[in-house]
Amino acid sequence: MFLGHYGLAFGAKKAAPKVSLLTLFVAVEFVDILWPFLLLLDVEKVKIHPGFTAVTHFEFLHYPYTHSLVMGVVWGLVCGAVYWLFQKDLRSALVVGLAVLSHWFLDVIVHVPDLPLTPFGGIKVGMGMWNSLPLTVLTESVIFIAGVWIYIKNTRAINGKGKWGLFSLITFFVIAELFNMFGPPPEDSIPALLGSFVVLQVIVLGLAHLTDRNREVV
């Protein structure tokens, strides 16, 4: 899932108005931010398999330290604790931790049965929505649109940057999603995958920071 994670982050702003949109974006994508670096270190493994599902060309072979349910709980506790350590805001820390954990529960909807429950067990789960392109597009779009709507209803732009930053961010998400859904398979190279992922995150997180610092909670 791609847009769905960010849609949840947009919506979480209502539950934790003191948490920046940048922090919420990092939280919902935390395990995906770790993942390419573990691929580069050969700790986790993925294969580029064109047509593996109707939506993605990735065949996830081994990623228990980033994408197992147990490690999702662990990473959520770690990120929530770090946020609390610096901000001393229990409610916001809880939302950050749950945002990290939410990644697994949204992924389990779309993935084929390749998501491990624990780092060391053999049980893997997944509901397989990626086998249907229309259903995936519909589900991701509903979550994303709902999250953006909640964010817009609970914040307002204080200047042009707050207005056009949000417009640019949404536009970029739509373009990236279309490319993910209908573009060619990525290069079968871990360094190239890491590079493209870093570029994507820099753009998304940069626009999130620009947007949110120029909007205020209603």
From TrEMBL:
It comes from the Bacteria. Keywords: Membrane, Transmembrane, Transmembrane helix. Pfam families: YdjM (PF04307). The chain crosses the membrane at residues 21-41, 65-86, 93-112, 132-152, 164-183, 189-210. The keyword Zinc-finger does not apply. InterPro entries: YdjM-like. This is Uncharacterized protein. It comes from Dyadobacter soli.
